[in-house]
Amino acid sequence: MKKYVFICFLGILGTLLSSCKDDSVQCNYHSDTLDLTVMHEDWQFDEETQQFFYHFDVPEITAKVYDNGNWSIGREYNKGNKNAYQVALPMSSYKADTLSDKSVVYYTEHIDYRVGIGYVEIQLTNSDYAYFKDEKGYLINPEDMYFRLQLIY
């Protein structure tokens, strides 16, 4: 009898461990990792909020994922290299820029995000609204940035 119970237990355990590998069985756990890239020239500036932003269309964030899922976004450095790493958002970096008169301006760059059904928006705000212009008077956009969105639903 004990041998029969043990064999049944192993059979049930095997079924449970392999059930999500079979395409005919509906799994209750899904995950997706999406790479999101903002190129230097693609940043937009919102005059009202005084921040840079970029809007990504992300159809993977359905109403079901939005209501029942979980997500995280990290900024990726050294993308594509063996020493790549991520910093979870929101993140703050302390910066210093030298102006044309050789004076130095210190500020904090804060990167955050918002998520909605079908989209992710990355937002970059400098403390004291320290945004700089080029010699022609145009606002200088932030550098290229790489982000990774991890969805669990």
Strand order of the largest sheet: 2-3-8-7-6
Mean pLDDT figure: 88
**Amount of beta strand:** 35-45%
| Strand-pairing-aware structural class | alpha+beta
C-alpha end-to-end distance: 41 Å
User: Describe the biggest sheet?
Assistant: 5 strands, antiparallel
| E-strand count | 9
What's the tally of helices? 2
Question: How many whole angstroms does the radius of gyration measure?
Answer: 23 Å
Low-confidence stretches: none
**SSE string, helices as H and strands as E:** HEEEHEEEEEE
Q: State the share of residues found in helices, binned by percent.
A: 10-25%
Shape: elongated
Features of this protein?
single chain; 153 residues; alpha+beta; 5-stranded antiparallel beta sheet; 2 helices
Description of the molecule:
This protein has a five-stranded antiparallel β-sheet with strand order 2-3-8-7-6, with no helix packed on it. It has two helices and nine strands, in the order H-E-E-E-H-E-E-E-E-E-E. It is of the alpha+beta class and 153 residues long. The longest helix has 17 residues, at 2-18. The protein has helices spanning 2-18, 63-68; strands spanning 31-38, 44-46, 51-57, 70-77, 85-88, 91-98, 104-116, 119-126, 145-152.
